[in-house]
Design goal:
alpha+beta; four-stranded antiparallel β-sheet; 10 helices; 41% helix; 15% strand; binds iron/sulfur cluster
């Protein structure tokens, strides 16, 4: 299993991730309060796609699913803050979905047929922004982007901060602590359950 996980983390980096790590699923924290934030105070994407609440299984469903997996791959993309707060952010989130879906596909091809990918960001904003509706919700039809779009971690209450800690990406120092000219950075993450 660890050889395969190593290959999947390497794949993530080849596709554009800043780093990727294999973790145990016991390191994944699922919290009802985090999922509730989608509804209250509310996310602008709430209810707009089949990949977001209230149309996903939420924390309870994810906990049940998690019990059937032992390993996961978590990956991140480090992005200058100014990009994440500009229109270019959609390209970053698109890459995030692409990497997640590619890891999932490769894991399935390697024999882990139940592997499932999750990301940050709403697929409605990223892939179906120019369509009035999510086709799955509006027409009970097929997703327009089945090979790319993956569910948002937020709707399941996945604690991304704890994921980053489990991956060893949390540091008390920011680049600005050591270099006042350093560019302020943000991190976006994806998660793939492998099994
Ligand atoms: S059709 Fe669009 S909005 Fe709906 S799940 Fe697929 S990518 Fe997301």
């Amino acid at each position: 299993m660890w050889d395969m996980l190593e290959k999947l983390t390497q794949l993530a980096c080849q596709l554009g991730a800043s780093d990727a790590r294999a973790i145990y699923t016991t390191d994944i924290s699922v919290e009802d309060d985090l999922a509730n934030l989608c509804r209250e105070p509310g996310c602008e994407n709430y209810g707009l796609s089949a990949s977001c609440p209230p149309y996903v299984a939420g924390p309870d469903g994810f906990r049940k699913l998690l019990n059937t997996f032992k390993h996961a791959v978590v990956f991140k993309i480090d992005v200058p803050s100014e990009i994440l707060f500009s229109d270019e952010r959609r390209d970053v989130f698109r890459l995030l979905h692409e990497i997640a879906a590619s890891i999932e596909k490769s894991a399935i091809e390697m024999g882990c047929h139940d592997s499932k990918a999750y990301v940050g960001g709403s697929c409605k904003q990223i892939f179906c922004r120019d369509h009035p509706d999510c086709r799955v919700l509006a027409e009970n039809g097929e997703c327009r982007n089945p090979f790319l779009a993956r569910p948002s971690m937020s709707g399941f209450g996945i604690n991304v901060l704890k994921l980053k800690k489990a991956a060893g990406w949390m540091s008390n120092k920011t680049p600005r602590d050591t270099d006042p000219d350093a560019v302020s950075m943000e991190t976006v993450c994806g998660l793939v359950l492998i099994g």
